[in-house]
Specification:
2 copies of one chain form a homodimer.
Chain A lengths: L3 E5 L4 H12 L3 E6 L2 H15 L5 E5 H6 L3 E4 L6 H8 L8 E4 L23 H8 L5 E4 L6 H4 L8 E6 L2 H12 L5 E4 L6 H18 L4 E5 L6 E2 L1
Parallel strand pairs in A: 1-2, 1-4, 2-3, 4-5, 5-6, 7-8
Antiparallel strand pairs in A: 6-7, 8-10
Chain lengths: 228, 228
């Protein structure tokens, strides 16, 4: 039996898109939501898209986190810290938390093209302060367009992976490589998430101005830098 | 006679690379330096590379700024504000200032993979507060690798252009399109330079980790969004 991936806030567009892609790649995916019924409905809908053999279930966020080895945060920033505190008692001691959260000002009524200042420097660094000791935190999957993830097309976006724990970096690089078109790139320390998170607000500004679904590619690195 | 482009701090690798590419495209380029003799030497060396018909001269920074319609800042952040104050009296009232400056912590003895906090939000926004009224400021050309600019190869990097003045955005988009491989993209307001400047520190981190000369490409926008 493969490890489970819990996608918290997985009924939102980013979470659903990642769930769809990873389920398609054969991963066991648990969609987490505040509302277990909504999670279950999203899981059933996704199964119809991906196929009956897909390993997708839906659970309330805490139950999903408790059942998983990999916990992916795809909630708006405004609910992020509260959810993290809620699930903290049930996180497995050897779990990996993948944080995709961007501190968009929109999450507190501001603009989606602007970000909030985070005392720790980035949401991912805040997460690292809040998780139980031993739980690894990795920042990744901030910049891919939800529209693209929720389709069958190749995702034209590189995934910049930031962590202070090599095993967590590895896990995120591997999950990036499982999505057609995506390439994972080790972008160094968790603190570098500061910039990776901001990039999403810039991509949103480009999407609004030019009516697109933008992503980024990193050029000029040796082939060994790209996973996928 | 075409307008002149003054590249202040143009004896550094980024400035020299831009001078080389724009001179090759037929632009009239003035390399600015604190030291007129160094500027002149750099101009003569560059002429040997680009060809005898290239329009390249070298001048002290203030003289270069006074002679130009487009003034490009390619100095380290530590010397940026002082240079701007120095040239302020001679900037033409209808000049365009293109700011490529990244607030790398390295400019004050820290790491090149980290940035300093700028009160105004970005170096370019600080510049906009310091220039004479009427002078347009545009942030651009932060992310291209100097190694790539100083070669004859295609520059695999998009140029994110941020300004509150459409004519300045146009000027920078056009200059991006003159460099083979580069594409200019209107990235909206000057405030968006906050993220574009940070991206350079992240690319430096990638270069160190993976031993490359990285750049960025923006995917997923309609063709009309790309100039070049």
């Amino acid at each position: 039996m493969s490890r489970s991936i819990a996608i918290l806030g997985g009924t939102g567009p980013e979470g659903l898109g990642l769930a769809r892609r990873w389920a398609k790649a054969g991963e066991t995916v648990i969609i987490g939501s505040r509302d277990a019924a909504r999670a279950d409905e999203a899981a059933r809908n996704l199964k119809e898209i991906v196929g009956a053999t897909a390993q997708i279930s839906g659970m309330e966020n805490s139950a999903a986190a408790a059942a998983a080895k990999i916990i992916v945060f795809t909630v708006p920033f405004s609910g992020h810290a509260a959810l993290l505190k809620q699930i903290k008692p049930v996180i497995k001691p050897d779990a990996v938390v993948i944080d995709t959260t961007v501190p968009l000002a929109a999450s507190v009524g501001g603009r989606a093209t602007r970000t909030l200042g985070i005392w720790e420097g980035s949401v991912a660094q805040q997460t690292a302060e809040l998780v139980p000791k031993g739980v690894a935190v990795v920042a990744a999957f901030h910049n891919a367009s939800a529209e693209s993830l929720n389709s069958d097309e190749s995702v034209e976006c590189d995934v910049l992976v930031c962590s202070d724990q090599p095993a967590a970096t590895e896990a995120a690089l591997d999950l990036a490589a499982k999505i057609p078109g995506m390439r994972g790139i080790d972008a160094g320390k968790l603190e570098n998430a500061r910039t990776v998170e901001q990039i999403t607000a810039l991509l949103i500004a480009l999407n609004i101005k030019h009516k697109g679904h933008s992503g980024i590619r990193i050029t000029g690195l040796p082939a060994s830098a790209y996973r996928g």
